[in-house]
Amino acid sequence: CIGMNENGIIFNSNPTLWKIIRPFFNKALSGPGLLQTTEHCVMSTKHFLGKLSDVTDDLGKVNVLKLMRLIMLDTSNNLFLRIPLDENDIVVKIQKYFDAWQALLLKPDIFFKISWLYKKYEKSANDLKEAVEILIQQKRQELSTSDKLEENIDFATELIFAQNHGV
Length: 167
What we know:
It comes from Engystomops pustulosus (Tungara frog). GO terms for molecular function: heme binding; iron ion binding; monooxygenase activity; oxidoreductase activity, acting on paired donors, with incorporation or reduction of molecular oxygen. The chain has 167 residues and is mainly α. It has one domain (15-164). The chain is built from 8 helices and no strands. Helix 3 (37-49) packs across helix 4 (64-80), helix 4 crosses helix 5 (87-106) and helix 5 runs antiparallel to helix 7 (115-145).
């Protein structure tokens, strides 16, 4: 529904695919990457606190929710993808994606009856999907031009290699 079917990590209704992908998630969430999580969180927090004015309004109020989203996205990127990205743009797309899920789960009757509402949230889901596809393509390009692999291969690299080798 609205472009999310079998495309999600949280809401994935394809058990066959999930059984194949799950070991990669287990490894990513329990291996050396997990040990580096604290270090990445600290670095990311320092980075975004140094740019606190970016999440502060004219009255001096800090948008703590946006700050936390930026820190989490940056930390996740450093652990799992390692691709330069525009955190602000991706954070907005992630928020709109979850707004779509919230609308679907809380108001399913209205959601499918009002076409402009459905299209709005379908666009939000597709915008995030397209942004992720672009990041993955950038990662593929980086891997194809790299002379040697890093010692600690990130999550995305493992998935790309598995896909390239028919897993």
